[in-house]
Amino acid sequence: SQQGEEDPQALSIQEGENATMNCSYKTSINNLQWYRQNSGRGLVHLILIRSNEREKHSGRLRVTLDTSKKSSSLLITASRAADTASYFCATALNYGGSQGNLIFGKGTKLSVKP
Amino acid sequence: SAVISQKPSRDICQRGTSLTIQCQVDSQVTMMFWYRQQPGQSLTLIATANQGSEATYESGFVIDKFPISRPNLTFSTLTVSNMSPEDSSIYLCSVGGQGAFYTEAFFGQGTRLTVV
């Protein structure tokens, strides 16, 4: 079953603007991750934020996590045309053992116009 | 980190035929995951492939339709059998993203399958 729900489903912005994508989830998590997918290719990991963290930065990326609201946001600052891709959040559930897999949201399709 | 080589990258197949997708990882891993991504949709886990045991399939996926092999700790195959146009999707293999330390996942480049 789908754990994460991103919004918006699609986002179109101009180069240089900031892009914000949101993700909501339903159950307790160990961590939340964001991935990028170019043109239906393989996914590339962007950033991982653990359940005891509230904010994390990586270059032009800023991720926040609010476990009380079961939500996360991904901010891409000063966007570039090369940022055009689909972005997915994925949650790692809070299993006690070593099993478990990532559950992906539906994704946000970002288009950055030059 | 892990580098995954997945092939073929794309194929167009006739209905009723089968396609085998291969994934080679540059390091030994216990679990490999196979996902399906239908057009415009998110990733859905098909099965988890453990070396030395039968794959574990998710609800809605069966071994007869998606047989998986895992002969060693660096290689796995997924076969899409008796294909129909509804099987047209991107198929992805993955490692990581699970386990006691819940690390990031690494993906192959995907196989874009079109069934005609």
Q: What is the mean pLDDT of chain B?
A: 92
Distance between the termini of chain A: 37 Å
Our estimate of the beta-strand percent of chain A is over 45%
Output the helix-strand order of chain B. Answer: EEEEEEEEEEE
| Strand segment count of chain B | 11
Largest sheet of chain B: 7 strands, mixed
- The coarse silhouette of chain A is globular
Q: Please report which band the strand proportion of chain B falls in: under 5%, 5-15%, 15-25%, 25-35%, 35-45% or over 45%.
A: over 45%
Average pLDDT of chain A:
89
Cα gyration radius of chain B (Å): 13 Å
Q: Which two chains touch over the largest interface?
A: A-B, 26 and 26 residues
| Helical residues, percent of chain B | under 10%
Which regions of chain A have little confidence, pLDDT < 50, spanning 5+ residues? none
Evaluate the radius of gyration of chain A: 14 Å
Give me the number of helical elements of chain B.
0
Characterize the biggest β-sheet of chain A: 6 strands, mixed
| Beta-strand segment tally of chain A | 11
Number of helical elements of chain A: 0
SSE-based structural type of chain A: mainly beta
